[in-house]
Specification:
2 domains, alpha+beta, 3-stranded antiparallel beta sheet
Amino acid sequence: MIDALYIGAMGMQAQQLNVDVVANNLANVNTSGFKKSRVTFQDAYYRAMNPTLSSNESTESTIMLGMGAMVSSNSKSFTQGEMKATESPLDFAIQGNGFFEVLMPDGTSAYTRFGSLKVNESGMLSTSKGYELKNQIEIPSDVLEVVVDSTGKVSGKVANEEKLLELGQIELTSFASLEGLVPSGDNLYLATDASGQKNVGLPTENGLGSIAQGYLESSNVKLAEEMVNLVLAQRAYELNAKIIQTSDEMLSISNNLRR
């Protein structure tokens, strides 16, 4: 019965994390480029115990008693989100597995699917938070409109000029294992050893995906699916709480036998 108390407590703790993850998914249902998380569970360690032997048994047998469940991982799902038109020339959605690589203030790289870009005070193409693209692209002040095709080629329309002015090339980055990327906030991900080899190239090549100007990728969170997950997590939490309640009642009965 004492074991049941700890088993129930571990189950409640695991389901609480599950509810927290679902809550974060629902909170970001309208966050462009957001990728939902999913929690997986595994059985906890086992304890060996010897049962009471009958008089005719000559050898002891061992029973392995499970000690509950625990969280195995909290990983991201990088399935494609819905494409939504914004009519903004500096909004870009990636149709594929690629990421925009941006420079952080400390000189390191981060990666994002959030393609709402702007021209910063230095005239460079950057994210809405001011992080410049790794392959820096300068937009001259006399450019009236920025044009980006599906291959990432950046051009600009200049007054009294029919021919587009070539400004640069957007590159995309992908990894051998996307689940190995670590989210760091601001719609950014950091590479780790678990993410594997980095693949940098032009859009439409090597499965990196193409770029759609005037679109943003919506969150891949599905409301109906997350609501079902929330109900299941709540019921599992209640059942684990019931285990603790039942074990406590059994202990109370044992304590009152002498009365």
